[in-house]
Write a structure and sequence with these properties.
Layout (H helix, E strand, L loop, with lengths): L4 E4 L5 H10 L3 E5 L3 H10 L4 E3 L2 H5 L5 E4 L6 H10 L3 E5 L6 H14 L3 E4 L6 H12 L5 E11 L8 H17 L5 E7 L9 E7 L5 E7 L1 E13 L3 E5 L4 E5 L2 E5 L2 E5 L3 E3 L7 H15 L7 H19 L5 E2 L7
Parallel strand pairs: 1-2, 1-4, 2-3, 4-5, 5-6, 7-10
Antiparallel strand pairs: 7-11, 8-9, 8-17, 9-10, 11-12, 12-13, 13-16, 14-15
């Protein structure tokens, strides 16, 4: 039998979770404090009960809660749900500080609850295929990774672009490399609202010598979501807008002490067409049923928070280097 879930929040992203859990036959209740959100829930999940008070969710017998509310509410709602004995799927970020995220992970472990965080791109078939390419050594030794996540809008006023866009890219890069960076540098600018960055570039340095940079912006003339991995043997590009993963048989050889670029064409790598969010929702339901922690569990989420917090500190200090504790990526 499919486990039952409650979704708190049916706004810009929450309605997509409502749609998926409803289609999967798992949705029992939707909660939203706004009339607009409740109307969206009624339209997205016809026949499903819709309420306005989160307390109704916490006292309900439904075993699992999905939280898709503004980021500043994630810590409190997740804590209350875990204390009420619920398994929890919370949208990214898990919390707004590493310490708060760690509290939630420890609480979930102590209560024997599933804690999953919505780093949806980790469930993208294209990203999963890219992970296989890296893990198999097809690209050789990874040397550099960069990610561009750019568009015009949706411009937020409650969180900056770093916390809104970059968690996706940080999560993927940490997963590909299997470790956290030891140094982070970030810079950017606020052009629409005071002190809320609209554009940031974050540089990550890893103990194995790999570097990565993440360029995010919601003030950009066109939409681009691209991740590039440069290896010693080959290079790969994942284009989420064009829905393409291409491997380039390109590298640099040495000829009599002279570096010579070896250029060849690219080969498109096929991947399955499933919706990443549907895969993510299925993963949560599976974890609730099997009691196995999901791919994007609390430990992976606090690793992302550690990097985000360091990047924010560097951004605030106008690009100063910020060291973070090294350690294996869980």
């Amino acid at each position: 039998m499919t486990p039952s879930v409650v979704v708190i929040g049916c706004g810009y992203w929450g309605k997509n979770l409502v749609r998926n859990f409803h289609q999967l036959g798992a949705l029992q209740l939707v909660c939203d404090t706004t009339e607009e959100g409740r109307a969206a829930a009624a339209a997205t999940a016809p026949g499903c009960e819709v309420v306005s008070d989160p307390e109704a969710v916490l006292v309900s017998p439904v075993p699992a809660v999905v939280i898709a509310t503004p980021a500043e509410t994630h810590f409190l709602l997740t804590r209350r749900a875990l204390e009420a004995g619920k398994d929890v799927f919370v949208e990214k970020p898990l919390a707004l500080t590493y310490d708060e995220g760690r509290q939630l992970v420890d609480l979930a472990r102590a209560r024997g609850r599933v804690l999953m965080v919505g780093h949806v791109l980790e469930y993208h078939p294209g990203i999963l295929k890219l992970r296989d390419l890296v893990a198999s050594g097809e690209l050789g030794k990874v040397r550099y990774i960069y990610s561009n996540r750019l568009s015009l809008g949706k411009i937020r006023r409650e969180e900056n672009i770093l916390w809104s866009f970059a968690p996706h890219d940080i999560a993927i890069i940490l997963r590909l490399l299997g470790e956290t960076p030891f140094e982070v540098v970030a810079c950017g600018g606020a052009y629409v609202s005071p002190n809320i960055a609209d554009v940031t570039v974050t540089n990550l340095l890893f103990d194995n010598g790999v570097r990565a940079h993440i360029f995010v912006s919601w003030l950009h003339p066109f939409k681009e979501q691209r991740l590039v991995v440069v290896g010693s043997k080959k290079m790969a590009s994942f284009d989420d807008v064009g829905k393409k993963l291409v491997v380039y048989d390109q590298h640099v050889d040495w000829n009599n002490g002279v570096p010579v670029p070896v250029k060849n064409g690219g080969t498109e790598i096929p991947f399955s067409p499933e919706e990443p969010l549907r895969n993510e929702c299925l993963a949560f339901l599976s974890s609730v049923e099997t009691r196995q922690q999901p791919l994007t569990d609390g430990e992976s989420a606090v690793a992302v928070l550690k990097v985000l917090q360091a990047a924010q500190r560097s951004l605030t200090t106008n690009g100063q280097n910020v060291a973070i504790p090294m350690g294996a990526y869980a």
